[in-house]
Structures are given as structure tokens and as C-alpha cells.
Structures
1.
Amino acid sequence: MSEAYTQIGGGGLDLLIVGDHASAHVPDDIDLGIDPALLRQHIAIDIGVAEVSRLLAGQLGATAILGGVSRLVIDLNREEDAAGLLPVMSDGHAIPGNRDADLAARMMRFHHPYHHRVATLLEGMTSPFILSVHSFTPRLASDPGQQRPWDIGVLYNRDDRAARIAIPLLEAAGLMVGDQLPYAGTLLNATMNRHAEANGIPYLGVEMRQDLVGDAEGQARFAAILGPVVLECRSRLA
């Protein structure tokens, strides 16, 4: 057990499901100085990711690793020298408890163990494939005029092999798919850059719209859609 991550499953399939922002947990000894209600919003957690990842792990016989703390404690999907590792603002909300926080201590406690575990799990696979699962808010408080109508986004940096396979399959399943939307994986792809692209491991990165995976029915729907798509990508690339 580790406070930095939760590991699920461990079936025989060489598929690792990664959820960087799957938790809203804030350890008791960390005070972010925010209204606790914010921990239920997108600035703190990728809503629906933990549940969809658990369903997929069980459905596919795969392993899932989920970040163990809120992205407001430390952002696991950021490079080690990125400014956004320890956010002091998020979508218009101040995070005052992070202003004087010890970044090095948070890195040692959460960021390093999480990424070490991801690397270890991949090293134990003969022909690994990664599914990176995130969710996005349909409307930013800081930019309410921005339209985000997509049901799911597919993100990638230089390696778009799985994206090209997945996008038509997701569209055929009835989803409105954003290719590099609502933002581009060339900008926000740190975990996959580190563990997949840097090592030549094929991966699929998805961003589900959080209001579509906020309840059990939506979570089951997306898991049922994503499962066959991920298997098709893996069989063609791994």
C-alpha cells in the first residue's frame, strides 16, 4: 500500500491503465486553505476516472494505477520542473496553502513513488500498452464562453498511432470525438511523454467529459465503449 497511488487488478493482460488525477484525497497533515467543496470539482479531481478505470481493469483483466492524492496536492501529470506541479491558482480559485509548501517534500512523498511504480509495472510486461484516462469539465469557470461539446477527447504528442485507430472506432460507437481537444497532448502529456513516448511504448490517451461519467450509468457506458477500442489498439500496436 502507498499513499501515492492505488493499484487495482493485476490480470495477465499486458495493459496498464493510468489515472493521474483519479483522487481528490488530501492527507490530514496538508492544509490547502480552500473550501472543502472544491475537492468535488474538476480542479481537484478528474471526475469518473477512478470508477471507469476500475471497471476497465475488471472487464479486461488489466492492471490500473491511480494517483493517490488530489492534483491540488501535487500534479502527477507534470514534468518535474514544470511550474504547475504545485498549483497556487486553478480555474480562478486560489490555493493559498500551497504558496509556502515544500515542493521537494511533496515530490519525494507522492510524485516520485507514483512514477516509480508506473515504470516498475511497465518493466514487468513483455509487450506493454498504456491507456491514460482523464476527464475534462464541459465549462471552465475562468472562461465560461469557451464551448467544449465533445464527449471524449483523444490526446497525444508525437505518437498518434493509437489515436488514429481509436478515433473512428469511438465515433462509430456514437461519441463526439475531439482530436487533440479540448486541449492538445503536445502541451499536456507529461506522464505519457515520460513512460510511453520516451520508451516507444504504444498508448491511448483519452479525456472523457466529466458530466457524462459522473454517475454509475455513464461510467458503465464509457467502460463498455472504451474496452473494445483499447483492445483493438493494443492488438494492432503492441
2.
Amino acid sequence: MSSVSYATVDVFTAERFAGNQLAVIPDARGLSDAQMQAIATEFAYSEVTFVLPPENPENTARVRIFTPTTEVPFAGHPNVGTAFVLGRQQEIFGRKPGQALRFEEKAGLVEVTLLGNEGVVSGARIIAPQTLQIGPAIDPAVIAASASLRSDELSERAHRPVRISVGLPFAVAEVRDLAVLSKARPNVSAFEEANTRYPLAEDSFSLFLYARTLERPWYVRARMFAPLDNVIEDPATGSASAALGAYLVSLLPDADAKVELVIEQGVEMGRRSIIAIAVGKRGGAIREVSISGDCVTAMRGVIEV
């Protein structure tokens, strides 16, 4: 029987046992696809990453990302957390804050910058691998049913419910206020119906709900439900946060803009996460979207395979 080492980290937080849990296998050589999926299912976190040698030696690593049920082409907190784990291996690689890494993933190349101070890596900033993709529009009744809400509890002051992506697609909708957001609950039957009506080749129907105020439009509270991927609720969803930030900035009338957002997630789960999003818009088009956050190490161990 062989074994592989793992580390778990809490992502988008500077406080241990908050944020979003991630398991990282820093050396996944020799593992089959079936073993990777089995390990991800065993952890039952929203994602587990497997680090492999890059296909192009100019890149840092090839990173594969698995949910408890499937492999996905891109996700935010797995990239931030994986970069943190690799960055903390300074005694081997000599990595320090400010260093750039590059991950090969199914969605494309992910550019990474290690963050920290006094020579200690404390997190990472990543660039979303794809441009903003918008559509289709989603029937508000589908959103409301999926979240166990009434249709009049949704808000269309900024946009109608829609599927958006910068690497991994999500249905996104704004709700009326924090009270509505807090009472949302996933309805699995409604999710199954939505998945049939709005199918995806690479993933199942997942829903990102958010609330914000007119006074603080760039401070967002959010929740993400993906019960068809065995993720009843996710404490932090960087890929959805990045897509939302890009979409909201795309709706601004300005042809050029640089906007920084803070997205707070996981509060209702007792795992508060803080996700920093920066969006650059030039000539009327979204040019760059970054996702940043802190991380802390939680556990280390060995898996028998």
C-alpha cells in the first residue's frame, strides 16, 4: 500500500477554523483519476487539489481540482490555497511574498502572486483564467424555488438573474436584503429541475446569491449553494465572486474603470470568509479580474491509497 501527504488550509481568512477548507495534495504523481476523485469524496470539502509537474516546464505546476463528485476546470479558493501551500514550502523552493507562480488548469493558465510580509507567505492573488462570459438569463422563479424564497424577495435593481463565468459558471442573483439572504435554503428538487432546464457540460447547476446596500455597493454579502455537487453550502467561492465583480463592473456606464470589491461569505455557516476582488475595465470591456485572500494552515497528514 502506498501513501501521499496532504495539507489542509483555511482559505480567505487569517483565523484558523474559519474561511473555506481546502485539502492540497502537493505531490499527486502516481494517483489515478479514480483515486483523486475518491480522495476528494473522502474529505467532503467543497474542493481538493492535486499538484502535478507542469506539462510546460516554464510553468510552476499542473493543478487538478475535484469536488466530492467531479473534476472542475477552475475554482478560486483552491488556487489561492494551493499557492499558499506551495509558497510555504520555502525550505524546499525558497518562495517568498511577491513571487509569481503559474498553474496549468483545464480552464487555462492561472497567474498567481504570493502575498505576505516580512518574508512569510500569508496568502495569494490569482488572475481569473478566462474573460467574462454572460448568459443565459435565468428565470427568477427558478432562482426563488432553488433557494426556498418568494420571487418578490429577489432584486432586479442591477440585473436579472443570469449565468456568468470567468472560468466556472454560476447562476447569480441579487436578493432584496440581508434578512432574505440569511433565510435562503437550498431545495434539492428545484436544483434538479434547474439543472435539466439550464444544463452544463462541465458542472451541475449552482447558485450564488448576494445582497448589498446602495450606501456600500462594493461591499457584498453572499452565499453559494451547490447541492448537486454534494456541497450544500460553500463558505467562500472565489470563482463566483470574481464573476460577480466582473459582471457588476461591466454594467457600469464608464468605458474605463478600476473597482475593488469585498465579498463576505460563510457568515451563516459560522465560517466567515473575506474575498478581495479587483476588476479592470478598459474600452468598455473587462480586461482583468483578480481574487485575493489570506490563508492559514490547519492540518497535515498522510493518506493511504
3.
Amino acid sequence: MKILVAPDKFKGSLTAAEVASAVASGLADVHPGVAVQQLPVADGGDGTVDAAVAAGYERVRVPARGPTGAPVTASYAVRGDTAVVELAEASGLHRLPGAPAPLTATSAGTGDVIAAAVRAGCRRIVLGVGGSACTDGGAGMLTALGARLFDRAGRDLPFGGAALAGLALLDRAELFEVDIELASDVDNPLYGPRGAAFVYGPQKGASSEDVETLDAALRHWASIAGPDFASRPGAGAAGGVGFAAMAVLGATMRPGIELLLDLLGFDAALTGASLVITGEGSLDEQTLSGKAPAGVARAAAAKGIPCIAVSGRCRLPSPQLHAAGISAAYALTDLEPDPARCMAEAAPMLRRLAHRIAVDHVNNRY
């Protein structure tokens, strides 16, 4: 019997690779001879580069600018001429040195990483766009890739979403030629009530006044950079990075988990599997909207392979789980009701959960 263990991270406690390792160890405790393949996954958000590295890509570390412009060291994953770039690596909320900077945060660091990959010979860039700290419409990313943004006096435009209100000219003459595929499940437009500023700005520290300022600036940005792209699904991803990638760089967009599963060789890994175990920190309504466990379960179901899930907590009733292709779910809170303890002791508790899975789902098959 072969079991494929393909979880996403447990945010705040374990990486996807650590989740997979804990589950595999628990299965081996009960059935030492069972064949277990570990394939950590991601859906385009933070942890995407780690998942690619776990699947055999090489990690490359490069200097980049963080969301405030301060220098950071970021990384991308590479195999052949394909690079996997994670926006959160350079431009994520965790890169903010202190307080949020909703009006001035920049995506320039993401452009720095893409530029480094292109200079190293990569021709295909897979860009995961979750976890952004900025709402700059992707303007910072474009400047790092060779674009120039000028105000009405002919000066270079400052970084940040608010500054876009003063944009007079976008010069694309020196832009890199690069093939970008966006990995994202966000379907928001660039601006408006469902746009980047209104929906995601408050999560990045924007006040109600900041949101209005950013939304107006994004409208102006779209009028110059590509008005036909502003309403496209995903234009609002990562504070408008999706818009810039599509409107200016000609990027295509695919559901994050589908694109990442293809890159990680998930279909081949399913060969010979009798059971798939997936999971993430919280199984909830968002899981059903294109998150990694739902994508893994869907791919397993297409091959007629049962799929179960592990999580820190599960807020989905059985009918919703079954509709998503997940036949059973095991949560750390089944063992310990205290969420803080679950996070602190996630690895050993996951190993114990895997003992239950081995008894419930492996004994009668092995």
C-alpha cells in the first residue's frame, strides 16, 4: 500500500514539509513497512517556495527590497528555466519592520526577485501572489523590472499606492521580457467595493480614509496602465500586482493550487497511491474556495483515490467535507481543546493523529 501525504502548512506552527514529516512518522509508528511518499504543497501564498524546494527545486537567495524599501534577503526556487517566485518572500506582511505602511508599501522587492531569476537564465516565472503588504497596483514590481513612472513634473514617482494619484506617465521602454504565470485564487477586481483597497487594505493597516485614498489612486493607475484589465478577475490580487502583471507584463492567471500541483509533479506522485492525506491549519469555508486541501482532494478524486485531511481545527461539517472530496478529517483540537497548546505542540500531536489514521484507514487495507 502506498500513501501520499500532501499537506499545506499549518500557519504559525509548522511548514508543509514539517506537517508531512509528522504525519509520515505517525503512520510508520503503526505500520513500519507501509510506503509513504511526502509531497508538501502550497496554493501560491507563503510557503510556495518551500514546497517547490521540497519537490526538488533548488533554492536561490537574492538581495531584494522589502515593503518599506529596506534591504532583505529573499529566495526563489528554480528547476531548468522555470523559477517559482513567492511575492511574500520580499513583499509580504512579515517583512514589515514595525508598523504597517499601507500608503507607502511597495512591491519592488518582488520585481527584484523576478529580475534576478531572469538574469540567471529563467524564462518562465510562476508567481504566487498571497500575503502582500502593499497596495501599490504592482507599480513597484514594474519599476524593478525596468519601467519608469513619472509625475507631472517629470520626476520619478515615489513608492507606494498613494503616490499613484500623481502619476502622469508610464514608460515601458526598458521593461524585461518575461513569461509570467500568476498562481492565485483571488478574483477581485483592481478597484471598487470588491477591489484591492477596500477588501484587503484594512488587513494591511489601512484606515477607512487610507482605503479611499488607495482606491482613488488605483483607479488613476488603471486609467494609464491598462483600463481594460482593471475589472478582470484577479486584478486585485496582492494589492494590484495581479493587475500590473496582466496589463503590463502579459501574464496569465491560473488557480494557485492547480498550477502548483502541476509544477510539483502531483499527478505522477498519485501513481500507485491507495490513500491521500492532505491538510492545513484550519479547515473552514475558505478551504472550499480553492485552498490547497480542496485542490488535492479534487485531484485525488479524479483518479478514484480516497482523500482524508488533517488540520489544527476543523470547522466544516461532514457533508461539506464530503462534497469537497474529503472523506474524513482529523484535527488537533480533537486531542486538545486549547488552541495555543495545539500550535505549540503541533508536530507531536500530528504524529498522534496519524496513529488514529493508521488504525482507521490503513489497518483494513494494509
4.
Amino acid sequence: MITELSAGFLPLTDSAILIAAKERGFAEAEGIALNLVRETSWANIRDKLAVGQFEISHALAPMPIAANLGLTPFDTRLIAPMALGLGGNAITVSNALLARMQEGSGFSGLDAAVAGRALADVVAEGRSSGEKPLQFGVVHPFSGHNFELRYWLSASGINPDRDIEIVILPPSLMADALASGQIDGYCVGEPWNSVGVARGAGQIITTKSSIWASSPEKVLAVREDWAGENTETLHALLRALYRAAEWCGQSANHFELASLLGSSSYLDQPVEFILPALDGSILGMSAPNEGRDFFQPHARAATFPWQSHALWFYSQMVRCGYVGHSAEHAEMVRKSYRPDIYRAALTGIDVPVPSANSKVEGALRETTAVGASSQFLYLGPDGFFDGTIFDPDGLDAYIARQAD
């Protein structure tokens, strides 16, 4: 018996696991026919999932959290029983802004701290001369892009609400907006940074993996009520997606994966724009070690829905003033990510699953073996570029420090 599932996705490289599950037969092997529907915006994804047009979706990692905190139009509880990889975003600026960053500091390379200092110098100069604030694009208010951009700016001495204007654009419009001079930079997932560079509109100055190594980006989102009513189907889907993630993570498959993603049904972009994010060459020869960790679809428990990831996003929502902090809100956020469902789904197929639901974020400076259900599991490095640590058990104190 085949179960049909409709899944929304945006044309991004980090939709790879869903696409591979369909195209490489992993979903079919679990009795699932995946109908992948390409959408143009995250608002469409959110709304169609909420009203039942999609059973599942490729989703921004903070999206289920925002829904459950009442920050979205529909009163629908969403959960994330699986992550869809680590990393995959970059920050690209116009050639004109890059030239200004290089003038003052000789900035080069892609280190987040160095890039942040160079941008801070430009912002300070512009503020003193009365210039209009720089404009940066992100894809949605409740996105990893928005929160990592704001975190990077703040830690670099730039006030993201006063010194920079942050605007919302769909991923596919970022390169055009940069080329036309409507924005000065953007934070977006691949391949849209590579597209901007290929069009000559700008250059990548840093990456998500440099701001926060091994950091979360997209999740599989489902309605909580649907998950409860379709347990066996959901478990079968998670097994298929896990096998797809394993396949996506093997370097021997990267060219085939890039070809699948590049087809007109999915990203509709040349293979040469997609492959760099998969094989780690996106950053060029100047920073080969950083590029290696740009996007991880499987390694480092990349598909595990860590509740500490959810709580970090929540801390940034509080910091930005989207929601007030309370114990009730924190518990609601914790329950938005469901490692219990992930474990139950993968029991019996002999794959390593973390034994903990949360971890201290930013504590691992090198690859480290951790407790798992079977075999060996390696995590990290997972450091923040400014050296801070996020301990989910110290959530109150972390939020209080950010308000200072």
C-alpha cells in the first residue's frame, strides 16, 4: 500500500533530503509517494501547511516555534520531528559595499569576526556622515537568516535595529535586488549566494557555519494533530529521509545530487551554481577549510531535532522583542522539537541517535564522540564566532545577558 504525501518546499539546496528521498526511491521503499510542491515564499509554505494543503513541509527552523507561540496567522500547532541538515547560508554584499569594507581594514577572507569588524567600520563612518542605513535582506522574520544576521551584527558592535535596515525578500529575488541596488547585502541559503556572485552582483563575505558552526537551518514541519493521527506514516517518512540524508552526505553522490536539484522541477539552476555548497568549494581556494563545513546533510547528527537549537532561536525571538520570556513559553518551545518521535522512528534500523535531547551549544571546539543509541556518533565543532556559550539549562541568565 502506497501513502501519498504532499510536501511544500522552496528552491534551496537545503531541500536536498526531501528531493533525494523522492528521486532516489527512499520514500517509495517505505511505501510513500512524495508529491513535492515548489513554492515562492515561506509564508505560502506556513499557511498551506496550517490549513492542510500540505501534510509535511521543508520549513525554516524557527517556524514551528513561532506558530506555537501564537506569532503566525493560524492557530495551528506545528512540530519538528526531524532537522534537514546543518548550515547552508551565507552573507553576500554588493561590490560597492565590499570595496568600502576593504578600504578601511584590508578585509579579505570569510572569517565572521573579521568581516563583522570591517562592516562595523563602514557603518560607523556612514552614521557619522548622516548616510542612510545599509539595507540587508532576509527571507522571513522567523528565520535562521534573520536571527544569525542580527546575532552577527550585534556581536560585531552593530545595532541591527538602528544601524541597519533589515527587509524581507523571497530567496530567489535576493540576487536581483542586490544587482539593482535595492539592497546592500543579504543573508540567504544556497544557491542564491552563488547566483549573486555568478551574476557579478556581489561577493560572499561570511557564512552561517563561520557565525555558528554546526548550526541548525531547516526542519521537517508537520501539524501536531496530523503526526498523532498518522504515527506509522510519519515514522516511515523519517526513515526514508534519514536514508536520503545518508546518501546526500556521501561525496561520491554530490554531482548526481546537484543535477537532481538543478532540474526545472526543483531549483531550476545550473549544476555549477549548486555543487559548490555540496562539495565545500563555495568559498573558493582562499578558505578551503571553512568550505568543508558549509552544509552538512547527515554528519554530526545533522538530522536530529535538538531542543537546545529550538531554545536558542527562542532566546533570539525574545531578544528581538517578538515575544516575552516566560517558563511557559520556554516549555512550549521545547515541545516544538520532537526528538522522541525521531528516536521512535529510527529504532530498529541500527543508526546512531543521540541519547540526550539538548546539548550545550558552542562548547565543542573539535569533533567529539558522544553517547548514542548504537555505533559511534560524532558532534561538533559547534562554536559561536564570538566565543559565547548557550547552555539551555541557563536560559534565563542567557536571555538576561543579551538584554544588557
